[in-house]
């Protein structure tokens, strides 16, 4: 087996920054973003060349098995952000602020936002909501922390929406999202996630803003795209949103590998010779003699 580290096969890349995001928007170069929650996944996508990694609070659903993102805590997020930042050295790392970590007061939000950068190696934070978040965003940005906004289907408001439903399908709600997008840009957000809104609306908003929009379920017209990695790898078995393209079916692949292992353990096919530690015959003979002489 080759012992060459996999990382040597990948050229070193320059670090993606918020400035890179701006430049990509200016040059009409699409921005790629994926979620990650652990070291090996972050390492693999960083080496593959993804522009940005979001440690999303989708963690709660796709890794921790909760029904929605509401139970996720700051401790959960920081733990997983630390693992991701050990694996990814080039992508812009965005930590997602969990439910109740930024809603109580701008000061509490700033304290929690700071922890993502100071303790967990993130480069920026993301939070959900529109005009009700402006004071919070201004305060966090004024402390030098880049903020990514999130409009449309904001999963922390799942109960208010009555389920995970597309947003902005009425002229009035589309107008509200457009207004919020302008307000978030003015408050200092460096970028904006648009989730589950009509493609036409996302394209229009993207054309009106100077900051890049990152779409999920929002069509081709955004400045970049993000997917939940466990959805695009087919690792999350409960449901797949309509807008997800599956690039692999790892749930089935895991089942196959686990099944094969169980079969080989039961048939004693595993471990084979090459998985076994050897001992010199003379050492073994000496061992047996010493055991016998102790009897
Ligand atoms: O938590 C998350 O993964 C997200 C993406 C869906 C944008 O917020």
Would you mind describing this structure in some detail?
Helix content is 42%, strand content 12%. It has 295 residues and is α/β, with parallel strands linked by helices. It has two domains: 6-248, Phosphoenolpyruvate-binding domains (TIM Barrel, Alpha-Beta Barrel), CATH 3.20.20; 253-294, no CATH class. Helix 6 (134-142) links the parallel strand 4 (124-126) and strand 5. The protein is elongated and about 90 Å long. It has twelve helices and eight strands. It has an eight-stranded parallel beta barrel with strand order 1-2-3-4-5-6-7-8, surrounded by seven helices. Bound molecules: 3-methyl-2-oxobutanoic acid.
Ligand inventory reads: 3-methyl-2-oxobutanoic acid
- What percentage of the residues does DSSP assign to strands (E)? 5-15%
In CATH terms, the superfamily of the largest domain is: Phosphoenolpyruvate-binding domains
> Can you name the CATH architecture of the largest domain?
Alpha-Beta Barrel
Q: What proportion of the residues is helical, as a percent range?
A: 40-55%
Report strand order across the widest sheet. Answer: 1-2-3-4-5-6-7-8
Count the beta strands: 8
Order of helices and strands: HEHEHHEHEHEHHEHEEHHH
Distance between the termini: 43 Å
Largest sheet: 8 strands, parallel, barrel
How many separate helices?
A: 12
Regarding CATH, which class of the largest domain?
A: Alpha Beta
Total discrete domains: 2
């Amino acid at each position: 087996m080759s012992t060459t580290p996999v990382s040597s096969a990948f050229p070193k890349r320059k670090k993606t920054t918020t400035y890179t995001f701006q430049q990509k928007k200016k040059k009409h170069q699409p921005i790629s973003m994926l979620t990650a929650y652990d070291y090996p996944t972050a390492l693999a996508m960083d080496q593959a060349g993804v522009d940005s990694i979001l440690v999303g609070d989708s963690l709660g659903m796709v890794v921790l098995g909760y029904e929605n993102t509401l139970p996720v805590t700051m401790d959960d997020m920081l733990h997983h952000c630390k693992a991701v930042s050990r694996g990814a050295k080039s992508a812009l790392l965005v930590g997602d602020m969990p439910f109740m970590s930024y809603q109580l007061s701008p000061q509490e939000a700033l304290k929690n936002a700071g922890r993502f950068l100071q303790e967990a190696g993130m480069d920026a934070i993301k939070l959900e909501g529109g005009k009700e978040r402006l004071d919070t965003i201004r305060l966090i940005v004024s402390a030098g922390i880049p903020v990514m906004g999130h409009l449309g289907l904001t999963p922390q408001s799942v109960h208010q929406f009555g389920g995970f439903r597309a947003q902005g399908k009425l002229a009035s709600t589309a107008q509200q999202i457009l207004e919020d997008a302008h307000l978030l840009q003015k408050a200092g957000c460096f970028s904006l996630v648009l989730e589950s809104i009509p493609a036409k609306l996302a394209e229009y908003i993207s054309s009106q803003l100077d900051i890049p929009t990152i779409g999920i379920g929002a069509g081709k017209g955004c400045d970049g795209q993000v997917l939940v990695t466990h959805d695009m790898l087919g690792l999350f078995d409960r449901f797949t949103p309509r807008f997800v393209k599956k690039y692999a079916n790892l749930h089935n692949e895991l089942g196959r590998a686990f099944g094969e292992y169980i079969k080989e353990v039961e048939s004693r096919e595993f471990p084979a010779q090459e998985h076994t530690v050897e001992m010199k015959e003379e050492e073994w003979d000496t061992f047996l003699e010493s055991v016998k002489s102790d009897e």
